[in-house]
């Protein structure tokens, strides 16, 4: 006679399979992030650099006022490496980095040396920080964000840069949609 009945054994096998599935899927509930990214514009900042938080809060507030359909929200990560990892693995679309950190992530230089080079583009910037997105960020999204933020640009202290290509000092190029807005081109349908 076995110590477990068939129903208990089936329950233990199912519970073990469920537990293994949870462990094997990793620490990020990726499907939930996909849903959140579809419903909200998540602006990633990090707690190690409060300047990213300050700018992220201003940008999200401006976007909520000027472009409410963006449903812009600030998502605070613990440190640059975490935000860089999310950008490099296509789990995040938009983040605020210092200029130096944005350039380092694009080149996979320290402190992002363990990540692959990440094709980043600038949406807006101030003297110290850049709101960056992945190169694959939809053109019309970049256009709408730049257009909306331009309305509060003076108040926030930001500009949409006019850089179609990267500069020799590692400064990133402007996103194609933001550049189209800046140049007065019409918004192309999505």
Verbal overview:
This protein is an alpha/beta fold and 190 residues long. The protein has one domain (30-182): 3-Layer(aba) Sandwich (D-Maltodextrin-Binding Protein, domain 2), CATH 3.40.190.10. Helix content is 46%, strand content 14%. The protein contains eight helices and five strands. The protein has helices at 6-24, 30-39, 50-66, 80-88, 99-107, 139-150, 153-156, 176-182; strands at 42-46, 73-77, 94-98, 120-125, 129-134. A five-stranded mixed β-sheet has the order 2-1-3-5-4, with helices on both faces. A hairpin with a 3-residue loop joins β4 and β5. The longest helix is centred in the first third of the chain and has 19 residues, at 6-24. It is globular and about 65 Å long. 33% of the residues are buried. Residues 11-36 have low confidence and may be disordered.
State the CATH architecture.
3-Layer(aba) Sandwich
User: Could you name the CATH class?
Assistant: Alpha Beta
> What is the domain total for the residues?
1
What is the 3D form? globular
Give the full name of the CATH homologous superfamily. Periplasmic binding protein-like II
List strands and helices in order, with pairings:
Elements: H1 6-24, H2 30-39, E1 42-46, H3 50-66, E2 73-77, H4 80-88, E3 94-98, H5 99-107, E4 120-125, E5 129-134, H6 139-150, H7 153-156, H8 176-182
Parallel strand pairs: 1-2, 1-3
Antiparallel strand pairs: 3-5, 4-5
Helix pairs in contact: 6-8
């Amino acid at each position: 006679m076995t110590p477990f009945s068939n129903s208990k054994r089936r329950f233990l096998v199912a519970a073990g399979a469920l537990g293994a599935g949870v462990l094997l899927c990793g620490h990020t509930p990726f499907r939930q992030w996909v849903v959140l990214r579809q419903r909200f514009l998540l602006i990633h900042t990090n707690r190690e650099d409060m300047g990213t938080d300050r700018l992220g809060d201003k940008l999200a507030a401006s976007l909520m006022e000027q472009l409410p359909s963006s449903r812009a929200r600030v998502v605070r990560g613990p440190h640059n490496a975490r935000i860089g990892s999310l950008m490099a693995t296509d789990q995040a679309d938009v983040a605020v980095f210092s200029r130096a950190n944005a350039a380092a992530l694009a080149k996979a230089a320290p402190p992002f040396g363990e990540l692959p080079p990440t094709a980043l583009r600038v949406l807006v910037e101030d003297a110290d920080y850049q709101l960056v997105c992945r190169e694959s960020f939809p053109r019309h999204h970049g256009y709408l964000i730049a257009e909306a933020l331009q309305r509060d640009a003076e108040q926030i202290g930001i500009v949409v840069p006019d850089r179609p290509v990267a500069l020799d000092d590692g400064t990133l190029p402007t996103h194609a949609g933001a550049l189209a807005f800046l140049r007065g081109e019409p918004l192309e349908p999505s």
